[in-house]
Amino acid sequence: MSYANERLPREKVFRDPVHNYIYVENQVILDLINTREFQRLRRIKQLGTTSFTFHGAEHTRFGHSLGVYEVAREICDHFQRNYPTKAAGDGLWDDSERLVALCAALLHDIGHGPYSHTFEHIFQTNHEAITVEILTSEETEVNRVLRSVSPEFPEKVASVIQKTYANKQVVQMISSQLDADRMDYLLRDAYYTGVKYGTFDLQRVLRSMKPYQDGIAFDISGKHAVEDFIVSRFQMYQQVYFHPVSRSMEVILDHLLQRAKEIYEAGNGDEDFVPTLLIPFFEHRFSLEDYLNLDDGVFGTYFINWRTANDQILADLSHRFLDRKPLKSVEFDSETATLIPHLRALISDAGYDSHAYTAINNSYDLPYDDAYDPKMKKPLTQIELMRSDGSLVELSQESAIVNAISGKLSGDQRFFFPKEMLIPEDGGINLFQDIFNDFGRYIHNNQLTIPKE
Amino acid sequence: MSYANERLPREKVFRDPVHNYIYVENQVILDLINTREFQRLRRIKQLGTTSFTFHGAEHTRFGHSLGVYEVAREICDHFQRNYPTKAAGDGLWDDSERLVALCAALLHDIGHGPYSHTFEHIFQTNHEAITVEILTSEETEVNRVLRSVSPEFPEKVASVIQKTYANKQVVQMISSQLDADRMDYLLRDAYYTGVKYGTFDLQRVLRSMKPYQDGIAFDISGKHAVEDFIVSRFQMYQQVYFHPVSRSMEVILDHLLQRAKEIYEAGNGDEDFVPTLLIPFFEHRFSLEDYLNLDDGVFGTYFINWRTANDQILADLSHRFLDRKPLKSVEFDSETATLIPHLRALISDAGYDSHAYTAINNSYDLPYDDAYDPKMKKPLTQIELMRSDGSLVELSQESAIVNAISGKLSGDQRFFFPKEMLIPEDGGINLFQDIFNDFGRYIHNNQLTIPKE
Amino acid sequence: MSYANERLPREKVFRDPVHNYIYVENQVILDLINTREFQRLRRIKQLGTTSFTFHGAEHTRFGHSLGVYEVAREICDHFQRNYPTKAAGDGLWDDSERLVALCAALLHDIGHGPYSHTFEHIFQTNHEAITVEILTSEETEVNRVLRSVSPEFPEKVASVIQKTYANKQVVQMISSQLDADRMDYLLRDAYYTGVKYGTFDLQRVLRSMKPYQDGIAFDISGKHAVEDFIVSRFQMYQQVYFHPVSRSMEVILDHLLQRAKEIYEAGNGDEDFVPTLLIPFFEHRFSLEDYLNLDDGVFGTYFINWRTANDQILADLSHRFLDRKPLKSVEFDSETATLIPHLRALISDAGYDSHAYTAINNSYDLPYDDAYDPKMKKPLTQIELMRSDGSLVELSQESAIVNAISGKLSGDQRFFFPKEMLIPEDGGINLFQDIFNDFGRYIHNNQLTIPKE
Amino acid sequence: MSYANERLPREKVFRDPVHNYIYVENQVILDLINTREFQRLRRIKQLGTTSFTFHGAEHTRFGHSLGVYEVAREICDHFQRNYPTKAAGDGLWDDSERLVALCAALLHDIGHGPYSHTFEHIFQTNHEAITVEILTSEETEVNRVLRSVSPEFPEKVASVIQKTYANKQVVQMISSQLDADRMDYLLRDAYYTGVKYGTFDLQRVLRSMKPYQDGIAFDISGKHAVEDFIVSRFQMYQQVYFHPVSRSMEVILDHLLQRAKEIYEAGNGDEDFVPTLLIPFFEHRFSLEDYLNLDDGVFGTYFINWRTANDQILADLSHRFLDRKPLKSVEFDSETATLIPHLRALISDAGYDSHAYTAINNSYDLPYDDAYDPKMKKPLTQIELMRSDGSLVELSQESAIVNAISGKLSGDQRFFFPKEMLIPEDGGINLFQDIFNDFGRYIHNNQLTIPKE
């Protein structure tokens, strides 16, 4: 029997709190899980700074990756049980696509580094490009496993993740507006944060999925389950992913890494606290090996060292990150944005480096995109509902709720600043009291506001 | 209003996946949570190497500590609602004990370091002594908060944790065979691992608790809920806490730290990979500050560095820990223990340093102790059931199930060795085939076995 | 101590699958639960014919009534803990309103009979009027308990249910667009049906509730929890409460009772099968006692008798109801409604009494009403969100999702007919094949459709 | 394609709160569900009088029967996926046994009537014999469906239920100490009552099951899951099934039916309240048709009628059953049993018919039977654990917990009497006060007790 078809003598399971069990049936999948690159995902939190707000959310990309694999596996089973192809080109499910789908599901996030969003911003990396590199570079263990299936298999899996793979059912199973990735992360993030918003009816959605010529549609009888998924995702963005305190900790992280980089570039860091594993990135000459050496703990270790650095700002930002001292924030809009320079001046007057201690952060998401546009950076096909006669209708045409949030960016832009500007640490008389009083006039109902005379 | 009695204007909540919400009503509690020492618990996994077996179990001591606080808070509420004291010495609940109980609950684990069990073994530290030090040393933020309640308050909280506090209800709420600590960790570890064994009926147990002169008893109507708790705990030990793969990873960690220490002591480590934050421990001269600088990520960072160390064993053990390459293990007993020297010799013959690559590990727990013995290292009072006439009966007298596991150590002793001894990496002919064949003869049904001729 | 303030020596609990425990603290509440009128609710299913579609939904109005009580109790506790009144008229919570609120919550559905909707249609009764009668009529046990609190207490509780009570916080707690009733039934119906749609974050919604001068508002930070509640309720209506199969069984029940009534009025029923307990209703001269004698089982018993009645239609409809043989249905609109007379003619031609075997059923609900209109039959106040400065904003102004479904009736109208018209029982040649063929031309994608030529 | 092999074009599902979905793949199964005899199970509560104690437990035998089917289906899937037979007699799973297994699972309880235990006691019926009759009698719809599979199929299914079927794997799947029936009812009863005891790890137990020559064994790695199942079942008996209040309501029901029968036999019932559907049973001449006409609601309807009967005892017992007025009870043992005649005399003296108002009830269960004894009334094979070398070991040899409750009857015997004997209705002076005082002397800690002088 070829390696591609090698089944384990008996299915192996991983206990998972979200799906109860992750079932592994193929030797290839088990070997991929055991690679060094995949095991590394145990050391990278799924939600970065979110655990500063929702303390339960300490789960890593390892469990999520297994979860996406499991959802994809269940979709394949459902397709094979209910819609197996009878003739090439009939638009039904061809189970010989299973392995490539499962590998792509398992590995879709393998290129993520610690606190990806911030890291990529500071060091100009791209986790998707690195994912492809891990799959296709001959130096990785992942590549060695994939190559053993067939020489072209690594590229094949990569093309699914890049959405250039010919079989659209496989592509949409892994990346679309209702894919295995999103299904797992909503459930998993809801489970670990403890919020209820992210829960939707996974089995009902899975059962509604139907393979057809152009990918995957949803039986119209499952309309409300799909709608519920979209609403859940929308609410998770509003309530969890965009939480101001998590973003505030991300702002601190961003400024902290930026500061460390500047100090390194200026050549005046403390000799004792050399961030060995970060230097290749400071110097813009990192290898894949360097990248794979990073994880959340590496960052934390340098911050512990830096907490007593000579540079006061580096030390203070490290302390704020490690000991959870978030900045405060307020919403603003295009009109009140004009107030920000004045506020920054006040913050400087109160003794803060306004570069290090203030920030603007925009967080927006498209809850559902009803207009496929191939020119977009990341176009995603619309969700199509299938009627009993086989005709299709786009989701937002059928759901008033989805229509209400469709095509509209959702989120806010916030201005971050030290909370001491509003709640002076010392309760008594303060040297800067006038500054604080002036500052406070611009904030009302947690929003930047032009004061009435 | 004094700081001790300062209530938040409106209760503050932390979203928690296990208890749904953690309710904070006192300013003191909120201030303790915001200390540097408490925030540090976010970086120390609750179950150490268990997440190598149960990938979901990535939760930290931070959430557990909040959970113990919450369970204690609910016990106080229940006592105050149903059994408030009417006269001093009536054996009912005196709610002026609430704050000391809540602080002790919150802080009972604050002295834990990364992978405590292993760490304490290698560096001869003691997390309970450190807990007391953190509470009472003037240099900590925790102490500063406690001191603000009253000068003697830090010692008072420490005495609860040390079980010398006069009010036995408070002591037993925090440390006994059915305390807030155990209640939280069973539920939490079950939630995060995804196993079902740890679940018991928290509300039913809480409702059964009754304060009395000598501490806390349980209404006899709640007998089965208490029994279920004991069985759940027993099963969690068997299935989760004593899992051979997690213990195997702990063995690797132990040998790895031991090796690093020996190399340091011998003075021949790589210059590039100096484990700055560990040196005070290698040199047996660490301060509380040094201790508080450690966390799981610090260890991981050194392991990443050491993965390419010159010392082959240090490098390989680091790789095994980071990339999850557990040792294999088998049970043995006093009779088959005699085989171990021969097996170690075979392992040496196959090219392994048998000091670094084999180990014996015993894991035993007393599921329930029905015989209080003050001479024991950690004596715990028995669980007493209260009949409707107020008379008491010890749990194992009433429950055949508890009686069956009462007073008997439960667990096993295992011999750990490289799994390559059983499953040679290369499927074909092997130089060491004879050795492997000999080795395999001693293992049957996952146990060390004296071969029949 | 007066009866009104009599607290149980220790709180009593009822185990409940939805709220875990129902806590009873007052003797009055316990006495109400033990009345004959309240115990009768055990014999009346909460969701009538819905269990024919969702077999798990066999729960009764008894559990729901306890659940509404429990939610109201938790609201009172939250209000008393966080917003206790300090001075009369300050708009905060006055805990002396607790007992009237709890009694109204417990008893709000006490006037329901079996299959209320159908029953009221056939016999022109009104469960709300009967609720008030049960509270205020001296012949009931409920009234005797309430009267023991004070002579005017029965009327006081009744006025809460009738929404004429002065304290708007109490009224809105029991009847409003987000009241204890709706909160319990969504969670309970979701639990028993097994669907996921009805779940929302009860604790989060409860925590958001704030008493104020004009009733109960919701803190704006809980906006998404409130939004989620509205969406959940909308989806439960779409997926569960309006399910066509349940409505079909209700149509059968309606026609069956109608037929029985006509037979009785015509005086030609079978002598053996006299529906003793229904006769007062057939004769429009029923007493409260007669009403309280009815339950689901009484109906079922008569149907079992009627299954072998001489009247073929009565017998067949009884069989269809007992043995779950639903009619089939299709959606229609104002245009396709014109086809119905022709379809009814075809159904007659195929041998069915089209009066007994066809029906039109409209099911519509207002998911959220953003425009309070006191002239409406059952006006409900809008949901108001409270900003941090105390100002209010109506929910649909803040939530695009709620706005999308606000003020618009949601549901459908369906035409019901024997499914044999589409799937002839005998697979072979059929005398009525031409009729069936003609009939089938009008149905496409489960909708009534004007056929293309 | 033959009817036996006819698969639905697409699997059909029933939403179930316990298993989420019940999957139906065969036309035969769907047809069986739609029979009149199976639909009748919707009108028979699973736990009889238990809902008087646990109000949530209003579920019927319909859902349970679907659940047992679903568990059996999952076992078949697991066996076929992991242990498919390769050669006749190899002891592995032969999937051609699937249909007979599924039908037996679905229909195993079809002979149950309302409140079976009591009913069988009064009317000397036997639900197992009736199950076989429903399967094999040509007059039933169930038989017609089974017959369509093949002429001998009804007998085949019946033989599985009677445990005479040749394939022991199929027999043990349906009736053994760890069968699909027990697995479903524990989970379902726990879900509906809301208690936590009944929950065990279904998926883990299922995964441990292994077909072998003599039936079904359990992989030794699943030992603790099996142990947990046994403990859960033990606790459900102690806490739910044997609850004194439910048994008290059963006592009332028993006495009520007995009284009605005696009145009928004496020929002096009220003319108005003839229990038509019960008469065949009073006269010991009932047909299968008569039996199938009974359900919980029929009983309730007669009780409503009898509540105003001329016979005072019949009327009062009806009231007590309908309005939930349980008797009180105390435990006794062989020694204190001697007190009962005296207590009965006191009860008579206080004006009660001691035949109607007192009772003795024993409830015992064997939590686990480690000694298979074919001479027992219902012998059940022991649970066998399979080691990795294929050898077997009986469960209680491996589990101290199971051993502790193995082979020992568990339960109690109680004496039931009017609670007015202890808590006189009128708080003031009472004619019978001396009697009550004497009575109370014999009861201590809820047990019958010989008073100390």
From TrEMBL, chains A, B, C, D:
SUPFAM superfamilies recorded: HD-domain/PDEase-like
UniProt-listed PANTHER family: DEOXYNUCLEOSIDE TRIPHOSPHATE TRIPHOSPHOHYDROLASE (PTHR11373), DEOXYNUCLEOSIDE TRIPHOSPHATE TRIPHOSPHOHYDROLASE SAMHD1 (PTHR11373:SF4)
Pfam families found in the cross-reference section: HD, HD_assoc_2
Name of this protein: HD domain-containing protein
GO molecular function: dGTPase activity
Superkingdom as given in the UniProt entry: Bacteria
An example Gene Ontology biological process: dGTP catabolic process
Organism: Levilactobacillus bambusae
Residues in HD domain copies: 61-186
InterPro entries: dGTPase-like (IPR050135), HD/PDEase_dom (IPR003607), HD_assoc_2 (IPR045509), HD_domain (IPR006674)
